[in-house]
Structure prediction request, 95 residues.
Amino acid sequence: MSEPFDLQAIACKVYSVLTKNPQARDDDKILLVEIWSKETKAKDISEFLSELLSGKISFPDTVTESDASYKRNTSLLEEKSGMYATTSRELSANN
Prediction:
């Protein structure tokens, strides 16, 4: 059995890819290829599949869930910063 996933490490990899490759933000396949290309040591498809099945590389669901979590958090931060900006403008206008 493989080691348990380090979800924080996977989330960091996903964040790194999403910030460096805008195409990966809209296409899970590109995101997975980017992540797997950093993780795999496989020289052929058989080795790659073995790594995937043994948990040596990230499972697709883990990567896409990290992606979704990143997008939710980014959206919340944008909403909060937008709310703060609106509040700041309103306060400035009232002074």
Summary: Helices lie at 7-20, 22-26, 28-39, 45-54, 60-94. Residues 84-91 have pLDDT under 50 and may be disordered. The chain has one domain: 7-94.
